[in-house]
Write a structure and sequence with these properties.
alpha+beta; 13% strand; disordered N terminus; 4-stranded antiparallel beta sheet; disordered C terminus
Length: 204
């Protein structure tokens, strides 16, 4: 795959949306989602990317992560694609690409923006009608960030840690963000679009 056309800074947090090819469904069963999360965890460790939030939807995935090195997403996303492709080929004999070559990415800097972005990601299943509340959806980071469930994939972002000193108080403060009315965050596809493809365009 070609690398990202735009440079990425080391330790710069990114909100990335990875979409199924032709908006097709990416996960056929629970096992597919489990395998994707395993691939994400192992590839993130290998590429030194700290994952802070995620949501696996039907035909796309939201990720919020901070790479320790420059061009972290340009290494992480292709690694996930290759790892998941091996799973699909083994499980179903399917060899066609599952994911779009291009992916959308947006830098996240300010504390308020980062917390709003986490909320946007974890509320995505509710907006899509997949769950009545973020805590009812098992394929996102909400249960770890707000309810304290163990999730070896996640590394808390310093802005998240700044919500409170103790883990319990921090989770309560984070959960309260979902109950308060406030400004949402514009979907990443309507902001900056980065891509592995030289012909990339913004995706809605």
């Amino acid at each position: 795959m070609p690398r990202l056309a735009c440079p990425e800074e080391a330790r710069g947090t990114l909100h990335v949306v990875q979409r199924g090819r032709g908006r097709s469904v990416c996960f056929s069963c629970v096992g597919d989602r489990v395998e994707y999360l395993r691939a994400l965890r192992e590839c993130a460790e290998c590429e030194q990317c700290a994952v802070h939030a995620y949501a696996l939807m039907g035909n796309h995935v939201h990720l919020l992560f901070t790479p320790a090195r420059a061009a972290g997403a340009a290494r992480l996303m292709p690694a996930i694609v290759k790892r998941y492709a091996r799973h699909v080929a083994t499980a179903y004999g399917h060899t066609d690409p599952v994911w779009e070559e291009a992916y959308d990415a947006s830098p996240v800097h300010a504390r308020r923006h980062l917390l709003a972005c986490m909320r946007y990601i974890e509320e995505n299943p509710v907006r899509a009608g997949l769950a009545p509340h973020p805590g009812a959806y098992p394929w996102s980071s909400y249960r770890a960030n707000a309810l304290g469930e163990d999730d070896a994939l996640l590394t808390p972002h310093p802005h998240y840690c700044s919500l409170a000193r103790s883990p319990d108080a921090r989770r309560a403060a984070y959960a309260a963000l979902f109950a308060r009315a406030g400004d949402g965050v514009t979907p990443v596809s309507r902001r900056l679009s980065l891509s592995l493809s030289p012909r990339a365009r913004s995706r809605s």
